[in-house]
Amino acid sequence: MPLLKSWVESANAADCPFPLNNLPYGVFSTPDLSARCGVAIGDMILDLKRAEADGVIAQSGAAVFAGPAWNAFMALGRDRWAGLRNRLTALLSDGSDGQTALSALLVPMADATMHLPIQVAEYTDFYAGRNHAFNVGTMFRGAENALPPNWLHIPIGYNGRASSVVVSGTDIRRPWGQLKGPNDDRPRFAPSQRFDIELEMGAIVGQPSSGPITVQEADDNIFGYVLLNDWSARDIQAWEYQPLGPFQSKATATSISPWIVTAAALEPFRCDTPEREVPLLAHLQDAGPALFDIDLRVTLAPEGKAATTIAETNYNVMYYSAAQQLAHHTTSGCPMRVGDLLGSGTISGPDKTARGSLLELSWGGKEPLTLDSGDTRSFIEDGDTLTLAGAARGDGFTIGFGTCVGTVRPALDDPYTRG
Amino acid sequence: MPLLKSWVESANAADCPFPLNNLPYGVFSTPDLSARCGVAIGDMILDLKRAEADGVIAQSGAAVFAGPAWNAFMALGRDRWAGLRNRLTALLSDGSDGQTALSALLVPMADATMHLPIQVAEYTDFYAGRNHAFNVGTMFRGAENALPPNWLHIPIGYNGRASSVVVSGTDIRRPWGQLKGPNDDRPRFAPSQRFDIELEMGAIVGQPSSGPITVQEADDNIFGYVLLNDWSARDIQAWEYQPLGPFQSKATATSISPWIVTAAALEPFRCDTPEREVPLLAHLQDAGPALFDIDLRVTLAPEGKAATTIAETNYNVMYYSAAQQLAHHTTSGCPMRVGDLLGSGTISGPDKTARGSLLELSWGGKEPLTLDSGDTRSFIEDGDTLTLAGAARGDGFTIGFGTCVGTVRPALDDPYTRG
Are A127 and A111 found together in one domain? Predict the structure, then answer.
């Protein structure tokens, strides 16, 4: 598929992340416009609330784009997802007679504030990267016991905390927590000293289910994808995670990028999961290629200094797809809802420079990174800005995710002082 | 405090679970009345939607009792919680001049269908019973490693799945899942054979918080308590829980009783947590007695047969209070929301007959229970009805929780057949 040309000129540049082929969905506001649904095209945002009110986008029934979340639209189902994408593609195409009506509904992206694109129903985080699981397992349990016995049979996951999901750009406060190092006599309560990122993709569930669903049905129920940074306090995690898993170490914040890149836009970039080391049981077997070829990059910028790229990898290295994760999520009859968010797990490639966490990049702090500024890093320091970026690269066009950014602010002096 | 007498005569019986001292909050409907908020008094429910509309209960601003959840009222804060309780106590007291106006707003409990009393924002399950943790740890890891090293320092918890919370009376479908016994070569996908209950109390968070809060603040933010049965598939759990904790084993369903017994009603029953085996860090220390003296009972009735009491215990045996759990939940800055539900963890007393799960009662299936009917049970069989009951017993009155009931239905023949 070539670049689709739009009458919005900025969308036609070869390096534009938001060409007509993409059409990612977000929620934006400006000083004059309340938070509402919009679609990115070039360096502009089409205001879908006004498009709907004006009848440019025909909708039956209640307004679904007026509110600050895509949930109401997602709930309408796949036919309507396809219908909107087709309509927007037609209206924004070069030569469309929609240009006059729509031009007045475009807002410069530079003037907009982005918000969470969905109301997150519940948030689940997986552990589906083979290299990440092996690296972390090696550090925690030794190379021989690195991969848990169940890992090759089920996409291991745990429930996270939906209330902690924030949009890119939100500052992240270094957490306090209970810590106990291996040589400490007893735990203490202190700010985390091993605060970290996890480079992930987030899959957004757009249709509900009330019992077990197949991998194909799961794939069909995924509305789109975002970049996701699952901020992790490694020292809190090491002390708390046995026997019931990570809890406060993962509850400070999870950042997501503001633009939902739809599954439809990613169709040309589908690719297979890797060959299975042991066969999966029937209910988890692939129903077709369900990973995506998406280049990913992480940069770290110390306060007031330039950013250094610290990792480059690709979503296609994962062992389990989001569709397999969602199918597994439903096996016990667990009801899934519109707006559920599934984190892929940390995406680490096989190379040392392709690791999606500082824990792996600095090998638990034993091999600190040297940044372009000359600073070294084992874990995040106060004032550091961490940025994830992602893009699927087609022939003459790019399906960009934009960025997922967070700056880490110092821990509170006294966490029990209000205000 | 003695029994408070009401003009609703049934509320004055010595064994009535819902005297004027209690006033628990629920959501009910009848064939004629949509789901709405109500308060139990004797064998009647006072319709708070109509009471509010009629001006009997003065409310400023928007109607908060008309919808099918207590969240809107909880969000108004503690002063309003106290105000409503005071007003209801006055109106329903023997000799009140509210009798005429209110009599028309009473609905026989027998005619009502009960619903979930809250919209569950997120659900967290803890592991705060010393005996339960020791029993389960002994079975899984041996007596010497029974209690994890962190257990005496933090109330261990994990995030559960809010979408799986159902109201008492909802049938529970035996789940399928991936299973692998210690002697199996490889896992298989099959219905759970070790399906179990967990006897717990649920604490309902009634006020939001956005950073770490103290144990006292946490106690203040708890609106009330319910009975909670955290249905658990032990065979799924054993295979999946390392390293990130329980996931699908706990996602089939969690049942709660329909009546929220308020923290205010439980005030006379406060009691201390047990003496600490090691001192807690300052931020988790008790701020006063925050457990409650609540008798708890579990019965099991095979299909078509009488129920047998299989466990009797008390909430006062827990090591951590809900206030300590909620305070711990916020340490990393995790935002808490109105409607968050916290499971206490399984409540097992020191005696063999005081254990709150079949896993413990049958010691992993090695010591099956014999029921009054002559049937034996290691785990739940299809058609079994499990009932939790709870009550705080005062001098001449009872603060009853009612019951939390669920009947287990056979697993689906083929979980991937729709409809």
Answer: no
Residues of A in contact with B164 (CB under 8 A): 334-335
ipTM exceeding the 0.85 mark: yes
Q: Are residues B207 and B82 in the same domain?
A: no
Q: In the structure encoding, which two tokens stand for residue B404, read together? A: 């939390």
Same domain, yes or no: A239 and A368:
yes
- How distant, in Å, are the alpha carbons of A265, B207, B213, B338 from that of B329? 39, 14, 9, 14
Whether B419 is covered by a domain: the verdict is no
Residue A417 placed within a domain: no
Report CB contact under 8 Å: A127, B329. Answer: no
**By CA distance, what is B180's nearest residue in A?**
A150
Number of domains in chain A: 2
Q: How far is residue A24's CA from residue A18's CA, in Å, rounded to a whole number? A: 7
User: A214 in contact with B at a CB cutoff of 8 Å?
Assistant: yes
Residues of chain A with C-beta less than 8 angstroms from the C-beta of B331: 175-178, 189, 248, 415
Question: Which residues 306-345 on chain B approach chain A with CB closer than 8 angstroms?
Answer: 328-329, 331-337
pLDDT digits (tens, 9 = 90+) for A310-341: 999 999 999 999 999 999 999 999 999 999 99
CATH code for position B21: 2.30.30.230
Chain B residues 98-137 with CB within 8 Å of chain A: 121-122, 127, 137
Amino acid identity of A114? M
Pairing of strands B222-230, B369-370: unpaired
Domain hosting B191: range is 123-409
Per-residue pLDDT, A58: 73
Kindly tell me if the per-residue pLDDT of A238 is higher than 60: yes
Return the residue in B124, B231, B244, B325 with the most chain A beta carbons within 10 A, the one to mutate for interface testing. Answer: B244
Return the SS3 of A294. coil
The answer on A154 and A61 residing in a single domain is no
Are the C-beta atoms of residues B11 and B25 closer than 8 Å to each other? no
Handedness of CA A147, A150, A152, A158 (dihedral sign): negative
CB contact under 8 A, A122 and B334: no
Residue owning tokens 């369900």: A290
CATH number at residue A332: 3.90.850.10
**Based on the domain organization, do B103 and B192 belong to the same domain?**
no
Q: Look at A122 and B283 and tell me if their CB atoms are within 8 Å.
A: no
A149 lies in the same domain as A283: yes
The low-confidence residues of chain B, meaning pLDDT below 50, are none
Evaluate whether residue A1 is within a structural domain.
no
Domain boundary among B115, B150, B167: B115
Q: Which residue, B83, B115, B147, sits at the end of a domain? A: B115
Q: How far apart are CA A277 and CA B154, in angstroms?
A: 39
